[in-house]
Amino acid sequence: xxxxxxxxxxxxxxxxxxxxxxxxxxxxxxxxxxxxxxxxxxxxxxxxxxxxxxxxxxxxxxxxxxxxxxxxxxxxxxxxxxxxxxxxxxxxxxxxxxxxxxxxxxxxxxxxxxx
Length: 115
Fold this sequence. Notes:
Elements: E1 15-20, E2 29-38, E3 41-45, E4 55-63, H1 68-71, E5 76-89, E6 92-106
Antiparallel strand pairs: 1-2, 1-4, 2-3, 3-6, 4-5, 5-6
């Protein structure tokens, strides 16, 4: 079967915190790892998938080990993005990212408790 994706995906295991942005008082918060990550979205293995159409906030902690210029000062990039759950499967869920995002450099394990 031919892959119809327009954006290249990478098999990266990156820590992520996904928060459902519904109107419920008790918001769903999931601490997961990415799989098939790209600039347009990611797949997350979980047995606690959120319903399709759920708006979410996603926080990612991306290691910067390969970027020699920044490594002396920062070693992670903390990425905040919103998106929507577009697919649920028995093994997990796919989230499509919105175009608005923010990236913040991090040193060491600073603020990793948030993810």
